[in-house]
Amino acid sequence: MHESAPQNPRQPETETETPGHAQDPGVSRRFLLKSAGAAGAGVGVGAGLGAGPARADAAAEPAAAAVPRRQGATMIGVPFERRGTVRVGIVGLGNRGASMTELFLAVPGVRVVALCDKVRAKAEKVAATVKAAGQPAPALYTKGEDDYAQLCGRGDVDFVYVATPWEWHFPMAEAALKAGKHVGVECPAAMELDQLWRLVDLSERTRRHCMQLENCCYGKNEMRVLRMAHAGVFGELLHGAGAYLHDLRELMFSPTYYEGPWRRQWHTRLRGDIYPTHGFAPVANYMDVNRGDRAVRISTVGSPAAGLAAYRAQHMPAGDPSWKETYVGSDLSVSLVQTAKGRVIRLEHGVSNPHPYSRVNTLGGTKGVFEDYPPRIYLEPEMSGDEWGDFGAYAKWDHWLWKEHANPPGGHGGMDYIMVFRLMQCMQQGLVPDFDVYDAATWSAPVPLSHASIRAKGAPQEIPDFTRGQWRAGRSGVDSVKP
Fold first, then answer.
1. Are β-strands 368-371 and 376-379 bridged in parallel, bridged antiparallel, or unpaired?
2. CA–CA gap between residue 246 and residue 351 (Å, rounded)
């Protein structure tokens, strides 16, 4: 099913085992075989350490990330084909997929024509939602874990939306692209560096867009800060920060919230930031990453992994399958990303300990700084005396999407609907999407690279230039002009 991977330009890490697989009873054997094959070729999870130049400070230098030969023309600036109706196929109908189906149905000119989930009862429940919205009954694909390939092959699907456990994001996006479909993937786009390169190559060869559907890019605060940053309100941009700090202990040990323990078991495999995009993507947008600047290296340190084991000891009975798990993931990982212009982005990930929800969402420049959770701002010359100002006073900077949709439906404060509406609008009107496969790869790259950095005691890892040099040119993004 898979095409051969492009020649890997990176060296394997110094430890040869694939971390955590021996203690991963919840991962399908099929997925383990794929991962093991990639790791054996030096491109699996954690790849990224390489031999630097032979000099005294070599340990502090990241390995140069060679760029594989381009297999197709760039997808930068490529518009969608204009279509009056967008026909959507949805793969994965758990908590996320089911709720997002309702938002696709809420956008005029969108039809949900096919649904896929290995649990037929979930597919039937969502199909009833589609019919209740006045649309024809969608086709159902429920014949095992590979039936998504049949959905991708349908001639009446324009866009495939993937909302499944993380290990399935890459093979499902790959199948959609090979079938000639545009595809949007939940976070992260893929878990391994070679998979990210393969998505870039496939998107370029098939001339179809592969997008990371990062809803936080469309948050009201994020979009306001984005427009202010691009207008120079913060002066010359210097630093930013983003995070995913969310106490998920109860949900990860719930027998019903996730379909199996897949999310918890990622903490038995990776030590780094396994969910970076909610924090990284908005700050990357502020700084025009891939649109005039580039993320070039990442260095990560992590705390001990103690929170999940402590929660298990307090709440899980003896004999529960979770007692066979050994957690290696850092309870808190902290990464520093540097850009080609010298800016610094701090990323944090912590889901295993008590903490109020926060994405941090900070941006600082020569004229002032914004900090979220709670939102506050400090700008010169309007403010002085070390007193925060009222961010609400800057509503004039709200993005046109939020001015048109002041009370959007759906969860997460409406950002989910704004994202779906804008994507469908781009497809219907034949516009260039707000973000592309290069953004998806860049935003997801901290997953394997932060793990590699922690294993290398914080040594910086080179972030590949997925644009192959085209990041230098400015271009539009989420800070779009109303069509």
1. antiparallel
2. 5
Please give the Cα distance from 20 to 271 (Å, whole number): 10
Tell me if 94 sits within 8 A of 186, measured CB to CB: no
pLDDT in tens, 246-291: 999 999 999 999 988 999 999 999 999 999 999 999 999 999 999 9
Q: Does residue 77 register a pLDDT over 50?
A: yes
Other C-beta atoms closer than 10 Å to the C-beta of 133 total: 14
Query: Does the pLDDT of residue 52 top 70, yes or no?
Result: no
- Tell me: pLDDT of 54 over 70: no
Position 20: which residue type? G
* pLDDT single digits (tens) 340-390: 999 999 999 999 999 999 999 999 999 999 999 999 999 999 999 999 999
pTM of the entire predicted model: 0.87
362-365 sheet: strands from edge to edge: 376-379, 368-371, 362-365, 237-245, 344-350, 333-339, 295-302, 461-462
Are the CB atoms for 467 and 288 separated by under 8 Å?
Answer: no
Q: Which two tokens stand for residue 176?
A: 């959609």
Residue of 158, 134, 177, 139 whose CA lies nearest to 86: 158
Average pLDDT of the residues in 208-237: 98
Asked whether residue 303 carries a pLDDT value surpassing 70, the answer given is yes
Both ends of the chain: CA-CA distance in Å?
40
150: pLDDT strictly greater than 50: yes
Rounded (10°) CA dihedral 129, 132, 137, 138:
-30
Q: Which residues of 401-417 are buried (b: 16+ CB within 10 A; e: fewer)?
A: bbeeeeebebeeebbbb
Are 267 and 327 in contact by the 8 Å Cβ rule? The answer is yes
Strand duo 110-116 + 362-365: pairing: unpaired
Percentages of the chain per state (helix, strand, coil), in multiples of 5: 35, 15, 50
Query: What pLDDT shows up at residue 66?
Result: 74
Note the helical H segments in 147-302. Answer: 148-152, 169-178, 193-206, 220-230, 249-253, 262-265, 277-286
Pairing of strands 182-185, 295-302: unpaired
Structure tokens given for 384: 């002085």
Residue showing tokens 């590979």: 146
Nearest Cα to Cα of residue 157 among 116, 186, 187: 116
* Buried b / exposed e along 105-114 (16+ C-beta atoms within 10 A): bbbeebbbbb
How far apart CA 39 and CA 12 sit, in angstroms, is 8
> To the nearest whole percent, how much of the chain has pLDDT over 90?
84
